[in-house]
């Protein structure tokens, strides 16, 4: 049994959950502590976190530290989201917090944050798996932005971040001097354009039946008896209109009593409802589910999973791969070529385990690089490497950190472009030496795989590899002429040998024809 604390430094709330985690009993929440602190408004408006907010944050983090000691918490994880992520003085703020509280806060990229939210939903098990059997969207409504993630046939196929968070919209309404009676029309006008683009890019002929809601306001109401019909967090989409009718008819004071919610939350709840209403209309959704999970649940689940205390029921790696495949499809990538490169590259990776020193996660990054190897041709066949890099860095792949996405982007780039050595990158490069070496090793493998299918004809029925005495023998089973492949293989082999001190050679095995 481990006692674990998950801390979420959010844009409008500082939250901590205490869990008991064991292999026998799984995860059990034993306490949930929350403090309202508006970190987001000033960051989104001014770009920096003010000193008084840092002071308040440190005060309550010290209180949280005392609570953790009282529960004898053995380990904790503290994460900051958009309010810290978008602050210009992030490094200074994090150092102050560390010095004054002893708590080390890690900043999540948007994709990492949303992936943890997604994991917290998936932890619901059978309810989640059954719900996504039909077309489903996760609407993750935060203070700075919302994340719309699309499921099709049980797989996560696309995700998009829209800067339409409730705090951001509230502050914008205040800047416009808009009254509450104008909110609905103004916010719908703002979100319509972005939702229309999402619909054109991702929905097309897809039918969306369900919406899963992750937020701090609507979810709280769904757990109460506010709606006419509500079963275990499920609400009929038509019945949701009832909530907006209540807002139109009652005062803020009435709503505060009715919803048992602080007055400062009422406006944010209203904005969340307007956003969700517009999504329901655009997607023609029929059923809503608010499982009531938070980022803290996702943090705890990630900890339990990474320490092999709890085994995942859902294959999250397949979701990341499905996203990469759909990105490739969007940019007219060759599916057959991607699958061929994937097979060859992973075969080489697996045979080089005792040499490359890379991990299972790096294998996933290589796999994604093979799937996105030619996405840049959508823009330019000449500057394929640079264009591929730009597309990958500008496209969110849920589940990958910014650093991991940069590794993938560079591997794809240097598969097509001349490799740049670390000393030549200059001071502007943010890549650490460790990250650079990882990138070089994966690039070397992809170049070999790319050379083996240079004709794009998928000539090889089978590819086998054997590593012996610093020689990697790659045996290809084909009766076709592979002169072109041998030529392109030689150019990639030189870099491969430089990176690994292993000489790759290609060996053709012809099968007997009937």
How would you characterize the overall build of this protein?
This protein has 514 residues and is α/β, with parallel strands linked by helices. It contains 22 helices and 14 strands. A six-stranded mixed β-sheet has the order 8-7-6-9-11-10, sandwiched between helices. Strand 13 (471-477), helix 22 and strand 14 form a beta-alpha-beta unit. Helix 5 (110-122) crosses helix 13, helix 10 packs antiparallel against helix 12 (263-283) and helix 19 packs across helix 21. It is globular and about 80 Å long.
Write the layout of secondary structure elements.
Layout: E1 2-9, E2 13-22, E3 26-36, H1 40-46, H2 51-70, E4 75-80, H3 82-85, H4 90-101, E5 105-107, H5 110-122, H6 126-131, E6 136-141, E7 146-152, E8 155-162, H7 166-176, H8 180-203, E9 210-214, H9 218-222, E10 234-236, H10 237-249, H11 252-259, H12 263-283, E11 287-289, H13 295-306, H14 316-330, H15 335-351, H16 353-356, H17 360-371, H18 384-394, H19 402-416, H20 422-425, H21 433-452, E12 462-468, E13 471-477, H22 483-500, E14 503-509
Parallel strand pairs: 1-4, 4-5, 6-9, 9-11, 13-14
Antiparallel strand pairs: 1-2, 2-3, 6-7, 7-8, 10-11, 12-13
Helix pairs in contact: 2-4, 5-13, 7-12, 8-12, 10-12, 14-17, 15-17, 15-21, 17-19, 17-21, 18-19, 19-21, 21-22
Pfam families: Ppx-GppA (PF02541), Ppx-GppA_III (PF21447)
Domain Ppx/GppA phosphatase C-terminal: 324-478
Domain Ppx/GppA phosphatase N-terminal: 22-304
């Amino acid at each position: 049994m481990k006692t674990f604390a998950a801390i979420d430094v959010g844009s409008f709330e500082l939250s901590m959950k205490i869990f008991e985690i064991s292999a026998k009993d799984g995860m059990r929440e034993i306490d949930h502590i929350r403090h309202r602190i508006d970190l987001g408004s000033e960051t989104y408006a001014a770009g920096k976190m003010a000193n008084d907010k840092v002071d308040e944050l440190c005060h309550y983090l010290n209180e949280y530290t005392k609570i953790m000691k009282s529960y004898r918490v053995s380990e904790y994880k503290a994460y900051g989201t958009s309010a810290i992520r978008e602050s210009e003085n992030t490094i200074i703020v994090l150092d102050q917090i560390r010095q004054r509280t002893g708590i080390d806060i890690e900043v999540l990229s948007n994709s990492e944050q949303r992936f943890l939210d997604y994991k917290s939903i998936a932890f619901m098990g059978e309810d989640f798996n059954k719900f996504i059997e039909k077309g489903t969207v996760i609407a993750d409504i935060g203070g700075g932005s919302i994340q719309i993630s699309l499921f099709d046939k049980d797989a996560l196929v696309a995700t998009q971040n829209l800067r339409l968070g409730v705090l951001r919209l509230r502050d914008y309404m205040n800047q416009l001097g808009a009254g509450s009676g104008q909110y609905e029309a103004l916010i719908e006008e703002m979100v319509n354009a972005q939702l229309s683009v999402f619909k054109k890019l991702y929905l097309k002929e897809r039918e969306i039946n369900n919406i899963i809601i992750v937020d701090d306001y609507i979810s709280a109401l769904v757990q109460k008896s506010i709606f006419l019909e509500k079963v275990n967090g499920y609400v009929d989409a038509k019945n949701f209109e009832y909530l907006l009718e209540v807002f139109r008819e009652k005062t803020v004071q009435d709503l505060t009593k009715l919803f048992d919610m602080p007055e400062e939350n009422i406006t944010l709840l209203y904005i969340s409802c307007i956003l969700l209403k517009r999504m329901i209309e655009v997607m023609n959704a029929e059923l809503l589910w608010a499982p009531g999970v938070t980022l803290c649940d996702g943090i705890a689940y990630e900890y339990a999973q990474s320490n092999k205390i709890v085994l995942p029921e859902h294959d999250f790696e397949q979701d990341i791969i499905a996203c990469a495949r759909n990105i490739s499809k969007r940019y007219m990538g060759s599916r057959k070529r991607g699958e061929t490169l994937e097979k060859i590259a992973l075969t080489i990776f697996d045979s080089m385990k005792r040499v490359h020193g890379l991990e299972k996660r790096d294998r996933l990054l290589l796999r994604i690089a093979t799937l996105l190897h030619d996405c840049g041709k959508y823009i330019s066949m000449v500057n394929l490497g640079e264009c591929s890099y730009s597309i990958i860095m500008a496209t969110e792949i849920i589940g990958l950190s910014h650093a991991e996405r940069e590794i993938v982007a560079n591997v794809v780039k240097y598969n097509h472009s001349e490799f740049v050595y670390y000393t030549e990158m200059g001071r502007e490069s943010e890549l650490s030496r460790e990250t650079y070496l990882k990138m070089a090793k994966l690039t070397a493998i992809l170049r070999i795989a790319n050379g083996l299918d240079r004709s794009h004809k998928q000539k090889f029925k089978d590819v086998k590899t054997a590593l012996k005495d610093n020689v990697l023998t790659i045996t290809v089973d084909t009766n076709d002429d592979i002169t072109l492949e041998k030529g392109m293989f030689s150019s990639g082999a030189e870099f491969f040998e430089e990176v690994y001190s292993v000489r790759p050679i290609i060996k053709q095995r012809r099968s007997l024809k009937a």
